[in-house]
Amino acid sequence: MKTVALTQTLSSQATWPLCSVAQTQIIELGAQAALPTHTLMQRAGLATAQLALAIAPHAQKIWIACGPGNNGGDGLEAAIHLHAWGKHPIVTWLGQEGHAPADAQQAWRRAKHAGVTFAEHAPEHFDLAIDALLGIGAQRAPEGVMAQWLHVMQSNCAPLLCLDIPTGLVADTGEWLGQPLSHSTRGQPQRHTLSLLTLKPGLFTADGQDAAGQVWFNHLGVDVGTTPTAWLQQNQAPPAPRIQNSHKGSFGDVAVMGGAPGMSGAAVLAAVAALHGGAGRVFVGLLDSEAKHAITATHPSLMVRSPTALDLHTATVVCGCGGGDAIRPLLPNVLSSSLCLVLDADALNAIARDTSLQELLKKRSMRHKPTVLTPHPLEAARLLNCSVKDIQKNRIHAAQQLANTFQSVVVLKGSGSIVASPNHAPIINASGNALLATAGTGDVLAGLIGAYIARSEDPFSGTYQAVYVHGHIATRWPNDAPALDAALLAASVR
Fold first, then answer.
1. 107-145: per-residue pLDDT in tens?
2. Which residues contact 207 (CB under 8 A, 6 or more apart)?
3. Residue 151: which of 173, 131, 175 has the closest Cα?
4. Residue 195 backbone phi and psi in degrees, to 5
5. Cα Dmax for the chain
6. Rounded-to-integer distance, Cα 350 and Cα 329, Å
7. Of 413, 11, 22, 450, which is closest to residue 233 (Cα–Cα)?
8. What are the tens digits of pLDDT across the range 401-415?
9. What angle do helix axes 441-454 and 459-475 make, rounded to 10 degrees?
10. What is the C-alpha to C-alpha distance for residues 452 and 461, in angstroms, rounded to an integer?
């Protein structure tokens, strides 16, 4: 039996459109008006049942926890198919006869008529669980019986398939409202989510990746036909080969400014990443003059200078890596003179504390001088004068707010790093994992971005490409290889 639309993983194309809850609801209403009654729910149920068999082909007892709304109705439709195919679905339903939405009410009647088993309590044993409790409109933490059922599903070793969105996850933002996910369940390969009709941004940033596990998609035969809220960067084509008739000047200069006493390693990491990332020449404006000889001895390809000797007018400047407080006096000239500029770490912190520097930053776009900001959530919170919780509650909004405020390309780092710009829909990066949660990897990213935009006409495109490559190194890092640290990361850039 075939569904109208193919359920697929997200590895088959480079970018995927992501739609907000509001957009998805509009698309759903349009499809319902154009299709016979109950069609969408029946397609969703069939797609769910087929995927359940694909991820757990030997499962016999399948627990389907259904909420009172249409998400629960999708689960009821799935139960009908699984029952017809010789499986033993057990449905626990939080809806009430006569009070459920029309489609869900119809699905309940169909399930009862088909002979599907209903129960009041979760089964003690099951081979597969399907979470069909709350859909994309949910904005509250699960409570009562629903919370109890979720705990059973998430703590069980049986595979878990979440229908449309994991219950407890905010579809637009990736904020997790449920009970904390344990380390044993985070990223567990037995966790799956089937996103229906559209892909939701919250599945891919903040807590989304941990909550959703493997994401699948089925558009239910509906043409979205709308401008997405954001894009998912899933993979990218390899860089074009360099022409033979080229030289080091063909690929741009990168000047790294940072490395205060005790932190010279941060500047070196950024510079090495820029060099391996394809920059023609890499200069290091080192704040710690005593470290110059050691760096020259170990990295002869890097050209170490005093910060004031750097040519800011022609190079792509990467400023702030290991800069400490010493970077602050240099920033007025950097902001005013740099042609292309990547601001990281201590440079961002200094700008957050000084409104005059903020004004200089804002003026760069008026002079057609592109800027890239690379904050982690705490640095972003300082720039927006809010809390880290505020940032993480809606990462896409925060990144876009930073981009609009400072008229810059912004990389909000973290799980599902977001690349935002005043002139583009945000991109959520799908590469990377927790191996990058170690000191110095942000310095590597800053240097890599510098290399990519030094040879790119489009700073936004160069930035998200660098972000993807940076994460991809961690994604493909072998399990039997030495632990990934920042030095290995910088050396692994290709």
1. 999 999 999 999 999 999 999 999 999 999 988 899 999
2. 169, 174, 175, 176, 181, 415
3. 131
4. -85, 130
5. 82
6. 10
7. 11
8. 999 999 999 999 999
9. 140
10. 9
Please answer whether residues 343 and 319 qualify as being in contact, where contact means their C-beta atoms are separated by less than 8 angstroms: yes
pLDDT at 456: 82
Question: Cα 331 vs. chain centroid, distance in angstroms?
Answer: 31
Sequence-separated (6 or more) residues with CB below 8 Å from residue 426? 229, 230, 231, 396, 399, 400, 418, 419, 420
Rounded CA-CA distance 337/260 in Å is 21
By residue count, the chain amounts to 494
Tokens matching residue 245: 């008739």
Tokens 């990066």 correspond to what residue? 429
Backbone angles phi, psi at 87, to 5 degrees: -85, 175
What gap in Å lies between CA 197 and CA 220, rounded to an integer? 6
pLDDT of residue 290: 92
Beta strands in 74-190 (DSSP E): 88-93, 117-118, 128-132, 160-163
Task: Give me Rg for the CA atoms of the chain.
Answer: 25
Asked if residues 416 and 429 have their Cβ atoms less than 8 Å apart, the reply is yes
pLDDT at 241: 72
Q: How far apart are CA 466 and CA 474, in angstroms?
A: 13
The residue whose two tokens read 């919170």 is: 381
Residues 6+ apart with CB under 8 A from 204: 18, 174, 215, 232, 416, 428, 430
Please report, rounded to a whole number, the percentage of residues in the chain having pLDDT higher than 90.
87
Report pTM: 0.95
Tokens of 254: 């990168």
Mean pLDDT confidence for 303-322: 95
Query: Do 447 and 277 meet the contact criterion of CB atoms below 8 Å apart?
Result: yes
Cβ proximity of 126 and 63 under 8 Å: yes
Within 125-190, strands assigned E span: 128-132, 160-163
Complete domains list, the chain, with CATH: 15-227 (3.40.50.10260), 248-491 (3.40.1190.20)
Interval 318-333: pLDDT, tens: 999 999 999 999 999 9
Contact call for residues 40 and 221 (beta carbons, < 8 A)? no
